[in-house]
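Render TRAP transporter small permease protein in 3D.
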Amino acid sequence: MTQASRRPEGGSTEAAPRPADQARNVFDRGVMAGGRVAAWLVFVAMAISVFEVVMRYAFGSPTSWVHETVVMLVAVSFSLGGPATLACNRHIRVRVLYDSVGPRARLWLDRFNDLVTFGFCLGMSYAAFVMFWGATHSPLGEWRLERSGTAWNPPFPALVKGMILLALAIMCVQALLHLIQSLRGKPAPAPADVEDAA
């Protein structure tokens, strides 16, 4: 039975929890709202790709900016997908051990997972900062944006590296908040896909 078809006792037709209800805190809910906005970047990328096809094959006037813009939009959307996925607890996981233990052991596994996630995001944030600094500064430390090197030559490489840094910084905050919550005894909510399968 799917989550949407379940009804509480008494025959009430109360709506099933939405994925936003899987968020562990207010910060996660904000990240999920931002993720829904960032998802539209894929639609924008598709729309300008269609524009390019029409201009190239219907009017014989190809653009010089669509390809790089599409790559940048998809890269930004993909990088912001990480925090959104962590916020709604839908990241890829192997649940064999987690599902075979009781609630107390699960809480300790949550704590371990949150600690490892925080450490990983912290390390990756440092690497992303180094990468972003190199894309926005010359070897002498002067401000300059890394560009694509094409005829159009936009500063998209620097922009994408900045978005990767932002996404990892957000994930650091999320992982720290999750760790604090699990240390206080609040378990991670079951992901919606697991509840749907029940």
